[in-house]
Predict the 3D structure of the following.
Amino acid sequence: MIEKTWSWRQKRWFFAFFAGLTIAGCLDRRSEEGANNSPSVGGIAVSATEDDWFLVEERIKAAYDQELDKLSMGNLVAKMGTTFLGTPYVPQTLDPAGEERLVVELQGLDCVTFVETVLALAGTVQALDVENYRRMSKEEVRKAYSEKLVSIRYRSGHMEGYASRLHYFSEWIWDNSELGLVDKLFDGPPAIAETEQINFMTTHSAAYWQLRDNPALIAEIQKTEVDLSAKSRFYVREQDIDDIEPDLLDGDLVAATSSVEGLDVAHTGIAIWKEGRVHLLHAPLVGGVVQLSELPLAERILEIKGQDGVMIARPLAR
């Protein structure tokens, strides 16, 4: 419970810190429900409901009906993203009890699963081609979407247990750029190199049920952290975001960098131009649903104490 005597800026810092815990999977929210386990899809172990699969199929069909597949990848991502406006914010949907499975969840999203879901839908629409899509069975469409989501969410596009998931979003950007799914922007001025060591998960290992249940995973996560810390990671400082705004496009992926020790990214979303300024389409903890930020991106980052800059990735057709 936040005391009412806290200032609004203090509350914003608290929510930013809480969101940072969420984005790194720190909240212990293991679900014991087994009803969401679907049969494997194309050999991929999946956790989903029929309602979620209906939403996947509905959005893909609507995209073809509206000829959104003819748009650039960025504009397609932006259009797909707006279809989620009003969707409830739900943290930690990726951590049901049991072995690692591909979670397909569209009825409730956090900031990362929002970005991943939109990118997977857009990537599936562009990859299938409308004529092929019309000949495909429901099972084949589900397989195509599942494979796209795996390629986005897991290291090198292979789901091989909990440690293979891209828990840190700067690694998410790096890995997806290596696969040709996104283009890392601003790897030089005005961006600066981030030198802080990444170690949030292993220094908070007790907060992850997977690491508590299987301590051997800690060494695997630590190796990921060491490797990520050694990579070149660039970010644009909050005071310089105005300078890069003219270079941003609708659909660019925005990662707000974190000032929390050992954590790379605190929040994610999608860039949308509105009335001559770039705003953030995102699933925020504060506000509770997917929404377009009232403040432009540059002003929004300056308002939040726990966020100190941005990394930008541009989605690519592949």
